[in-house]
Each structure stands twice: as C-alpha cells, then as structure tokens.
Amino acid sequence: MKFFQCFFLFSATIVSAQVNKSTISGTVTTQGNPIPFAQVFVKGAMQGASADEDGKYQFYLDEGTFTIVAQSQGYTSESKTITIENKQFVSLNFELSERNEELDQVVVTGTRTAKRRVDSPVIVNLINSETLEKVVATDLANGLRFQPGLRVETDCQTCNYTQIRMNGLQGGYSQILINGRSIFSPLTGLYGLEQIPVNMIERIEVVRGGVSALYGSSAIGGTVNVITKIPKQNNYSLSNTYESIDGKAYQNVINGNATVVNKDYNAGANFFVSNRNRTAYDANDDNFSELPELKSNSFGVNAFYLPSENSKLEMSISSLNEYRYGGEMVDKPAYLANQSEERTHNVLMGSLDYQINFNEDKSSLIVYYGAQKTDRDHYTGIIPDDQAEQQAFFAAPPYGVSEVTTYQGGAQYNHKINSFLGGKTVLTGGLEYVYDDVFDQIETYNYLTDQTTKNLGAFVQNDWDIFKNINFLSGFRIDKHNLVDHAIFSPRLSLLYKLKETTQFRLGWGTGFRGPQAFDTDLHIAFAGGGVSRISLAEDLFEEKSNSFTASVNYDKATEHFIAGFTVEGFYTHLKDAFYLFPLGEDDYGERFEKRNGNGATVKGITLEARANYDYLLELDAGFTIQSSLFNEAVLNIDSLPAKREFLRTPNNYGYATLTYTPTKKLSATANLVYTGTMDILHLAGPNTGQAINEYYATPSFTELSLRMGYTINLSKINTGLELYGGVKNITNSYQNDFDFGKNRDSNYVYGPGAPRTVFAGLKIKSI
User: Fold this and answer.
1) Which among 218, 210, 215, 216 is positioned nearest to 494, based on CA atoms?
2) What is the pLDDT of residue 606?
3) How distant, in Å, are the alpha carbons of 248, 332, 337, 379, 383 from that of 327?
4) CB 249 within 8 A of CB 764
5) 579, 224 in Cβ contact below 8 A?
6) Of 11, 43, 282, 738, which has the most beta carbons under 10 Å away?
7) pLDDT reported for residue 478
8) Residue 564 pLDDT class (50, 70, 90 cuts)
9) C-beta separation of 149 from 623 below 8 A
C-alpha cells in the first residue's frame, strides 16, 4: 500500500509541476517531410524531448527566455530563442537542412569534454560504425587498420594475438579505453582487440602522440577510445556473414542489435549479441595452423536514464567469451598435439557514469566507475622428441591459469567561465584511481606473473578560447604509481589557430611515462627453436619517460555538394630509459628474454591524411605515415646476431585508403586498401622448420585490396530493410608465403596481412 501511496504522490507531483509550466510543442521537418526522432532541447540544459516518428515533439518549461535547439543526425541544427510567460502554449516548428557531417563531428577524447572536432586543440580521428561495416571489420582490431598513424599487426603464428602500433610504438605504449575508462588490462590487451565485436562499437576516437598523457600511464603513443553503441532511437538489426578463407577454412559471424528508447527520451538501452565461429587455416600444408580456430560469444547492454532535467546516468556491461586453439590440427586434447596453444577467455566488463549539471549549467560533475574481470585457462606446449622428456611432459602438461581484475573509479569537475582574460574557458579537474591485479601461471615452466599495480592520478586542465580563432589548452597530470617510488608530473600544452572556417594549425607538447610493469606482449609465451620463449622483468626495472611534440595543419573546404581536405602532422617522441628485451639465453624450456631499461630511443615522422566527399555519392578517406624508430644505441636482440638500433617489426612506411560509391540509398560499393612497408624482424632457427640459422630478415612490402558491394531491398509495409552484400578481402592474396614448418617453428616469424584472400557473403535485416 505504501508503494501505491508514494507512486500516487509522485505522479501527482509531476502532473502538478507540469500544470504550472508552459507547453512547448511543434514539428521538425526537412523540405516539408517530418524528421523522425529528432532531438529538441534547451541549449545548455537538459530539458527537451525526442520527436516521434512523425517529427512531433512536446515538453514543458518554466517562465524565462530560452534558446531551443533542434538537431538530428545528418541535418544542420537550428536554434530559436523564445520568451515564455506562465502557462503558455508555444508552437515552435523547425525546418532542418541536410548537412555534410564531416565538419560538425563532436569528439570527447582530446579534452575529456565534448567539442566539435575542428575546435579541438588536439587532433582526434574518428571511425564510426558505418565505416566499420563498409570495410567488413569483424572486430576492433580489424577496424583500427583504417586509421592514420595506426598499424595492427599479428605477432604469433600459432595463437595470432594482435597488437596496435601507434606512430611506430608497440601496443604497451597505447592506452585502450572503453567509454573513456582504462579497464583494458595488459592481459586483456593481448587478445582483447579481437574479442571486441564490431557491433558493440558506436565509434572509435583516436588521439595520436604524447599529448594524450591526460589519461595517465602508457598513453605515450596515443589513446584509442572505444565508444560503445549509444541508444538513439528504436531500431534493430540482425546480420549473418559467411567467409571462405582461401577455400581451406571458413568463418561465420552473427551480429544482432536492438535499441529501445522511451517516448520522453529520458531512458533507453541498446542490446548487442555476437557469435563468431572460425575453423583453423593451414597456409603451407604442414598440418599446423596459421590462423587458429575461434569460437566466441559476446553480449551486453548500454543504457542511459535521465533522473532529472539536469542529470544523466549511463551504464554499460558486456560479457565476452572466446575459445582459441592453434597449432597441430588434430582432433585430440591440446596436450596430445605435437605443438599447440589453447585459450579459453571469460571477460566481464562494465562502467557506470553519473553526471549532474548545475550553476545554470556552467558547472558539471561526473562521477564514474569501471571494472573488468578476466578468467583464462590456457595451454602452451610442445611434445619433446626425447622419450624420457616425453614421460615428464605427459606427467605434468603445461596448462596454466590467469586471473585479472581491473577497477577504475574517479570524479571530474568542469566549470565554464564566460569571461576569462578577454575570452572564455572551461576548467577541468579530476581525480581517479586505477587498480589492476594480474595473476598468470604455468607451473610446469616455472613461469609466474603475479603483479598488482595501483595508480592514483590527479589532472587539471584549462581549455581557453583566447579569441574566437585561438585556443590554448594547458594542463598537467600527477600520478603516483605503486611500482615507482615518487610521483610523476606530466604536463601538456596545445595551441590551436583557426584560419577562417577552413584551416586549423595545431602545436602540441606533452610528457608521459610507462610504469615498470608487465605489458601485453610480456604475458605471451611463444614457440621458438623447439622450445618456448618467455619474457620476464628485470629486478631493477624503473619507469620509462617520454617527451613528445606534434605540429599539424588541417584544411577542409566545403561547398554545396563537395567537401575535401587534408591533414599533415609531424610527430617527434623521445623515450628516456626506453624498455627493450635483453636475451638471457636458453634454459630447459627454450629462449628467455628480460625487459630492461636502455639508453633511450627516438620515434619521429610525418602522417598525411586526405579526404573527399561528393554529396555522399563518392567518399574517399586515406592516410599514410613515413617515420623512423631508432634506439640511441644499438641493442642486442639475440646473442648470435649483431646489435641493432632499428626497432624490429616497425615499417618506416604504412597507410590505408577507403573509397565508397553510393549511387542510391539502396546500393553501395566500397574498396579499401592497406599498405605495409618493409621491416626488419628476427627469425630464429629450429630443427625441421626450414630455417637453419638465426638471422634478421627484411620483409617484403604488402598491399592488401578488398571490395564490398551491398544492395538493400526495402519492405516498406513492415519498415524493414533487407541488405544483401558480398565481396572479397585481400583480392590479390598478398600474404606471407614463407612460414616455418612443423612443431619446432618460430611462431613469432609472422608478418604482413592477417589473413589470405577471403570471399564473403552476407544478409542483414534492419529497421528503416
């Protein structure tokens, strides 16, 4: 009874509150046609509503003068100022025009606050879900290949773990964020890039270079922020893609999404589910796989709720499960295969954000929490040739377990000052705490990583619009890492000058650090020369620091039907006490390497971007990087070979391009290209592998060309579209052709594109 009484009083209060307010209503249209689900709201506040499928909206306001904004994706926004007296009925209609979205994209990663991309003092690159679909990306790793300055590489012939290189720096130098939260632990980073299904992603924001040090440890190379699906309007989609990999293996991917948003647009949720099944692929017919068998299931939800007109609650939770097996292709338990790796991952991750605006919307407070837990069972083994050693092996096969727990909690305060030294500014300050506990053990190899890192960070930032065309961003972050005996101060400065509406010049400087801890590649055990290869940390390992500079010019010219532009960015990063792997020689199980501090290293280069869009009929996007990556002094990679200054596995040239042709809304054709230049890698000898000596090897360059075509049939009576699509990935079969053979292979000897020629076809059912 109490519940009903409370409910009645609550409802009566709401009704009474609305009775005393004025009603704002109208229709949002374009060229006389309604725009379904357009958003209409009070500028700088949270009052507003979502239009219905007929473009009609309604909400309530108190007395006062307000600027009302109407906006919808794909259209220019329109604002109108009105003055309301008590209990009025105000009719306010909006007529929006279709727009070119290129110049109006809003990003959050550059400053931790929402800004138009062209107004951000830090370059932020974007790839959205539509582009991910056009390039037929199945996961996060696939999608990141189409970003300037980024390269995704496969580092193990047996398990195919991937890592991202940003401006030439390997995975441990990049911070991976999920919805802005650093819950991507080192172990998650080892296989996680392939475990994030593409239908979980709304867009990916990328900040290159050390100016992203605002996010703390390990953001030296840059930051990748994965924004998960945002509930916008009621819709659904279900797709199935079948791939034939070189005619020898197949992959089947099923993705589903459903979004529900209530009529008042104050609550909504997006649900996603994904199933992936791939058989193992053997490139050189030695019955050992080059692509592992994969079975994965993922599901989750992203939701929001507006408890009041000036507050917002956002929640996301995802479950990722993956089974991965590579090595000898036999129908036996992993330990009975001559050589194999087997992994079973269960990953649970989520985040919770609460934001409240106050002080006439000049101030906002965000409180957030994120967490991730990974449980992994794994096996990495090779059956010895010696009979006595075999008995010992089968008595205790090298199975292992991993447990990882990551938490992040924090608070961020933003305050706008409309009059600040002749301009206006946004002050941002915050405090956050990250806890990461990694336990990874294989008793048979006497291998153990038991590492707990704790980092308490505080950050301050002043985002100052000195004039309309000049912005100066200054800030710093102080971190106390439990594996470093002192606090680390990381400042950053950025300057933006806008020349008219077409051109932006940017300068940036920042410092950063990496804690003396294990990163993704350190947690991977590889096969080499008839044994395994392991990495450990030196006892006296200490933090590595960076000093980064960037300078860029960005130009975009828009006309009624055409927009084209380019970006040229130079980057320079000096690493002090840079980490490198020192060879310790062999023990009973194989090669051992130790992570040590070196003298230093420098990464520098230039990234070029080009883009063009003609009425969304023809769209071009391309990026190309020219760089060098050198240690100050040559480092020893293996005892039998000379030391080298060059970073291994790091090409000096790489890039991508995508071209989309959309003659009608029903038909689209996409071509994409990924180029990887030559690079030096290490190739270790092994008996009966085809490699008799240890040597450095300069890989050839690769150009990977793919095509996709899709056609949508509209079933208007049920508001449903049926898209048929198909194409070929890696048409020219640009793929490594000199893999090692057999169980003693050097599994790190893998380079170039991640898969051979692949023919695919699919069907997608979606709401229209």
Assistant:
1) 210
2) 96
3) 16, 12, 8, 11, 12
4) no
5) no
6) 282
7) 96
8) very high
9) yes
Which pLDDT value is given to residue 360?
Answer: 85
Tokens of 530: 């008839």
Closest by CA position to 265, among listed 85, 28, 103? 28
Contact 147, 204 (CB under 8 A): yes
CA distance 293 to 759: 18
Residue 45 confidence (pLDDT): 67
Predicted local confidence at residue 15, as pLDDT = 46
Report angle CA 274, 280, 282 to the nearest 5 degrees: 145
Phi, psi (rounded to 5 degrees) for 487: -75, 145
**Longest distance between any two alpha carbons in the chain, whole Å:** 93
The DSSP-derived string for 196-208 is: SBGGGEEEEEEEE
* Token duo for residue 581: 């792997």
Category of 37 on φ-ψ map: left (φ > 0), alpha (ψ -120 to 50) or beta: left
Cα-Cα-Cα-Cα dihedral sign, residues 171, 173, 174, 176: positive
Distance CA 463, CA 349 (A): 32
Sheet holding 201-208, edge to edge: 125-128, 201-208, 222-228, 174-178
pLDDT at 437 over 50: yes
Decide if pLDDT at 563 tops 60.
yes
CB 78 within 8 A of CB 86: no
- Other CB atoms within a 10 A radius of the CB of residue 183 amount to 22
CA distances from 269 to 71, 203, 230, 233, 236 (A): 20, 17, 8, 9, 12
Question: Which CB contacts under 8 angstroms, 24+ apart, belong to 717-724?
Answer: 719/767, 719/768, 720/765, 720/766, 720/767, 720/768, 721/764, 721/765, 721/766, 721/767, 721/768, 722/763, 722/764, 722/765, 723/239, 723/763, 723/764, 723/765, 723/766, 724/762, 724/763
On whether the CB atoms of residues 581 and 519 are closer than 8 A, the answer is: no
Q: How does residue 518 score in pLDDT terms, banded at 50, 70 and 90? A: confident
Q: Do the beta carbons of residue 687 and residue 746 sit within 8 Å? A: no
The pair of three-digit structure tokens given for residue 1, joined into one six-digit string: 């009874």
140 and 198 Cβ atoms separated by less than 8 Å: yes
CA 679, 152, 208, 510 dihedral sign is negative
Using alpha carbons only, what angle is made at residue 274 by residues 270 and 277, rounded to the nearest 5 degrees? 175
C-alpha 211/C-alpha 495 separation (Å) is: 11
Give whole-number Cα distances, 23 to 57, 62, 70, 95, 675, in Å: 10, 9, 16, 20, 57
Burial class (CB in 10 A: 0-12, 13-18, 19+), 306: middle
On average, the pLDDT of the chain sits at: 90
Report how far residue 181's alpha carbon sits from residue 723's, in angstroms, rounded to the nearest whole number: 35
Percent of the chain with pLDDT over 70: 95
Cβ of 124: how many Cβ atoms within 10 Å? 21
What single letter denotes the amino acid at residue 614?
Answer: Y
- Structure token digits, residue 730: 């890696």
Among the listed ranges 238-242, 532-536, 620-624, 749-753, which one has the minimum average pLDDT value? Answer: 532-536
Best CA proximity match to 751, nearest among 658, 655, 650, 653: 650
Closest among 219, 213, 143, 225 to 177, alpha carbons compared: 225
Q: Are strands 399-420 and 470-481 parallel, antiparallel or unpaired?
A: unpaired
Q: What is the pLDDT of residue 156?
A: 92
| Residue found under tokens 């030391």 | 643
Q: What is the C-alpha to C-alpha distance for residues 341 and 293, in angstroms, rounded to an integer? A: 10
| Helix, strand, or coil (residue 211) | helix
pLDDT at residue 8 is higher than 60:
no
DSSP-assigned beta bridge partners for residue 152: 164
Least-confidence region, from 3-7, 488-492, 711-715: 3-7
Q: Which two tokens stand for residue 19?
A: 């009775």
